[in-house]
Specification:
Function: Catalyzes the cleavage of L-kynurenine (L-Kyn) and L-3-hydroxykynurenine (L-3OHKyn) into anthranilic acid (AA) and 3-hydroxyanthranilic acid (3-OHAA), respectively.
Helix content: 25-40%
Radius of gyration: 22 Å
Pfam families: DegT_DnrJ_EryC1, KYNU_C
Oligomer: single chain
Largest sheet: 7 strands, mixed
Strand order of the largest sheet: 2-8-7-6-5-3-4
Enzyme class: hydrolase
CATH class of the largest domain: Alpha Beta
Cofactor: pyridoxal 5'-phosphate
Number of domains: 2
Pathway: Amino-acid degradation; L-kynurenine degradation; L-alanine and anthranilate from L-kynurenine: step 1/1; Cofactor biosynthesis; NAD(+) biosynthesis; quinolinate from L-kynurenine: step 2/3
Length: 412
């Protein structure tokens, strides 16, 4: 069954067309690979689309660096890439001065390294604070490190839609708190935490603050240096479009470099990488948080997306993100609110990242039906469809197509 073109659909269609017409970032959409058979890609918050330029970038790398310079490229360029790309990422998207951001490992490995280092830097404190609904990796690693180190996990249980508040954190931290681990944007509801205020609360107790930026970097402006953030970790394959399995990055505030002891002491984090010394001596600065050989090939797609973000600016990307999520909620109100579908995301755009979540008991199998028709959101247990709106590659008309497809399936 297809929903008739009701007055609501006509109104939404006209609104989407006008929003796309006046969108000063709309031209960026042509820089991404087209996806054959896809009507609406609404999963950029899980895996960003590839850039057209990545084809040439990878081809040039194979021909002119790997294929021609061979192992000499390590000395000429590759050895510095984790830090040079990290510095650029810090400047463009994090509000971080040079020497504090490094691209390496996976999100999971970096979380382990930095959580372990942080709690050991507070030896007289025996609690780690984390939200009970945080992403599984974050929770699993915290639980494992707490068990290994004889510490206790204190769980924060915030409102599931509004997310973690400053008041929630204030009630949880104490002189016993070694570390607080939170996500900047909740992977389920899209709730956006007040990073500056929460960080201030945590640091006032003498604890260390670690932020997971996986669902915010590239679409939400942030000032890690100015806000006093101690540590941050994130993947690069969502809004940074680094591709499946792209390496993660870590931000470590300069004042902590000497105090945090690297728990995975690999050769690439040593002071003299090729000295082959008998004992480990950490490199100076952010390089000490590297463990093994950097994934050079896997870093390359990220550099192209940083070009786009720098050209567009995170502030303008954020403005379009707000426009897209506002419009998606308008479409929900008009087409789904009367079908027993609930909005599981904040209505206030200041408290929301770049995805919204809709809830209904039928959404597990319905998501698979949507995928078969070229409408691609994602599903999160137990009953949520996430509509991820990646601003540089997604239009308002695409967002409307997704919500309309859900409504049509609900009618069926």
């Amino acid at each position: 069954m297809t929903i008739p073109l009701s007055p609501a659909v006509h109104t939404l269609t006209a609104a989407a067309q006008e929003l796309d017409r006046i969108d000063d970032l709309a031209h960026f959409g042509a820089r991404f690979h087209p996806a054959e058979g896809v009507i609406a890609y609404l999963d950029g918050n899980s895996l960003g689309r590839p850039l057209r330029a990545t084809d040439d970038h990878l081809r040039d790398f194979i021909r002119s660096e790997w294929g021609t310079r061979l192992i000499r490229s390590w000395d000429e360029k590759w050895m510095d890439l984790p830090v040079t790309i990290g510095d650029r990422l810090g400047r463009i998207a994090l509000g971080a001065a040079p020497g504090q951001t490094v691209v390496a490992d996976s999100t999971t490995v970096l979380l382990y390294k930095l959580i372990r280092a942080a709690v050991e830097a507070r030896p007289r404190r025996d609690e780690i604070v984390i939200e009970a609904g945080n992403f599984p990796t974050d929770r699993f690693i915290v639980e494992g490190i707490a068990r290994e180190s004889g510490r206790t996990v204190r769980w924060v249980e915030p409102d599931p839609v509004r997310g973690v508040s400053t008041e929630d954190v204030s009630a949880a931290v104490s002189p016993r708190t070694a570390l607080v681990v939170l996500s900047h944007v909740d992977y389920r509801s899209g709730a956006l935490a007040d990073m500056a205020a929460i960080t201030a609360v945590v640091k006032a107790t003498g604890a260390i603050m670690l932020w997971d930026l996986c669902h915010s970097v590239g679409v939400v402006p942030m000032e890690l240096d100015a806000w006093g953030v101690d540590i941050a970790v994130s993947c690069t394959y969502k809004y940074l479009n680094g591709g499946p399995g792209a390496p993660a990055f870590a931000y470590v505030r300069a004042e902590h470099h000497d105090a945090l002891r690297q728990p995975i002491q690999g050769w690439m984090g040593a002071a003299d990488v090729f000295g082959m010394g008998s004992a480990y001596e950490p490199a100076a600065g952010i390089r000490r948080f590297i463990s093994g050989t950097p994934p050079i090939l896997a870093m390359l797609p990220l550099t192209g997306m940083l070009d786009l973000i720098e050209e567009a600016s995170v502030e303008r990307i954020r403005a379009k993100s707000v426009s897209l999520t506002n419009f998606a909620i308008d479409a929900y109100d008009a087409l789904l609110a009367d079908k027993d579908v609930r909005l599981a995301s904040p209505r206030d755009p200041h408290g929301r990242g770049s995805h919204i979540t809709l809830g209904h008991a039928s959404f597990g199998p319905l998501t698979q039906q949507l995928w078969s028709t070229g409408v691609i959101p994602d599903f999160r247990f137990p009953d949520g469809i996430r509509i991820g709106l990646s601003p540089l590659s997604t239009s308002h008309q695409e967002a409307l197509a997704g919500v309309r497809a859900i409504a049509e399936r609900m009618e069926d």
